[in-house]
Amino acid sequence: MVNFSPLSFLADPTFGYRLCTKRAVDDGGVSDINLSSLVSCVGGVGQRCVPSLLREFAAYFAVHCKLLPDDDGSRGIFVPNYGLAEHVVATCGENEGLVMSRRRPDLASLRYWGKPEMSDETFRARLDPDDGRQYLRTGDEAFVERGRLFICGRIKDSIIIGGENYYSDDVELAATEAMADAAARPGCIAAFALDSTDGENEYLCIVLEIRERVHTAERENLASKLKTRVAKTVGLRSDRVVFLRQETILRTTSRGKLRRRGAIRDAMVSGELQVVFD
């Protein structure tokens, strides 16, 4: 569409840039596509921005525009985006790994129906030490460095194993990079912790969709490659890798995004997922 209409603004989730790059690879290039009208190219849109993917996208599509910044610090038009809908008027100070909190002028009117304690905890949270003001608790963990806010991930999606905290996004990215697109469906993956049989410990479980054309004999080798990549990249052992039937992983009904990792974990425990390899 940008090629036929001089648009200046483009926003797309991460999987959209991945899809465009894959199409460019399959078609042998995109020399006939002109993106010179773009002033701002927003990425992420509710998903993590993957630098390696953006560089690959730029290698094909930055023919008529500068998508990424140069080594000299000059600005590119690509802008990572965080999809928090709430209006931000203040933020917490410069610290590492803090729960991200925001100030809003209408906090006093926000509440969960019939849940006053949860409402106070979420919409009228206090900082430690208390500065006398109320904040919205977003549910994300983040830190501020040199005046810039870095989002680490959702607190509910963090994986705690052996007393160490890991971000599920990091595990899922490493697993995705280990699997060829021909074998696994990008973005159709979830990593979470499960209780051991004795209930005393937790272990890492990675669930992902696999394409139907992958033969049964290949699946064990693919699982082994995935475990190796996650161990080298994240430093965490993948005790369990589960392949699901294509197009069966749980998704939301509104936007087609994956359901919360907690929901997928619960479905895994209850045996509701369509497993083809475990």
Automatic annotation (TrEMBL):
It comes from the Eukaryota. InterPro entries: AMP-bd_C_sf (IPR045851), ANL_N_sf (IPR042099). This is AMP-dependent synthetase/ligase domain-containing protein. The lineage of its organism: Eukaryota, Sar, Stramenopiles, Ochrophyta, Pelagophyceae.
